[in-house]
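DM from R.C. (forwarded with permission)

"hey, sorry to bug you on a friday — could you get me a structure for this? deadline for the figure draft is monday and I only need the backbone to look sensible"
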Amino acid sequence: MQVKKILIGIALIVIVGLVLLSMRFNAFTSVESEFAGTCERIEGIPGSEDITIDQNTGVAYISSVDRRNGGQPGGIFGYDLNSPDARPINLTEFAEETFQPHGISLWSTPGGPGRLMVINHPFRNGRVEHEVIVYEALGMALRQVKTIVDPTPEAPQFLQNPNDLVAISPGAFYVTNDHAGQTDNAKMIEDVFALARSSVAFYDGAEFKISTSGHDLANGINASADASQIYVGSTLGDAVYVYDRHADTGALTEVQKIDTGAGVDNIERQADGTLLLGVHPNILQLFRYMSNPGVPSPGKVLEVKWTDNGPVVETLFATDGIEISGLSVAARYGDRLLIGSFLDTHFLDCTLQD
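My reply, with the result:
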């Protein structure tokens, strides 16, 4: 009788645990496709995980890696939104075969060359390494300027698992580490047991420091126009965290949490301050899609608008996963909206209705 009670107790614990885990991964969330506009599929760029647009030139920079066929060199593609017959062009054909770009950020000024900062995960010395490559951005051309690495790359403290970054000057940036663990099993344990161990590091042009930690899979990051505030997306926290930035030290002080109801991936900021979020409404479905490309994963593009009554979150684009799965980023230029995926072999070039 005692054994039966113990087994029943264990079964109840397992059931409750599975329910809680399903809720954490938004397993019961469904999405219907919705968009007031038209979209064209642009093929030939696998894993368009991050996209940013130079608002001065209309050139979009797209980070691309074929994650389903590991070992292939990735690339940064240019896509000229002012061209009537725009097509993606690989701007990093000169890169090493180990080039595996991830998050990107552009520092640009009118009338001058910009700085495109790119997280890279090359496989070298028998392990995956992490670095930030800085390019001079010259429209549809890139010139490599420098490479920044962790001071102790064998046991990284600041570039542990870098996911995204935001440039706040031509030489300084903040970068998110989505996990602290260095193995797949360690990362899975963090995700399943809600161990909020990810962090945000700051590079001031000479050295690194940790600005904030304790995030539940920190992912996308961006900044206000004057860099007085930093925005950090949490994929498993379903939120964007707003920080005041202390310019003298680079330290961050949390001032607001914006609930999004979906796992936040990349963040792009528009000229008026509106944030564009690529989000994953159903993380469990996302995991299934990662294992099986035939299983669609829903996605949304959310807008965070600032009002006198606080931030307002609205849906700009939604898909059940048929148009694009694994939606990770959206960037806007006028009435054009580019939407990328970290696994699909195409991105969307959309036009919004007036």
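R.C.: lifesaver. The chain has a mean pLDDT of 93.
me: no worries. The chain has three helices and 27 strands.
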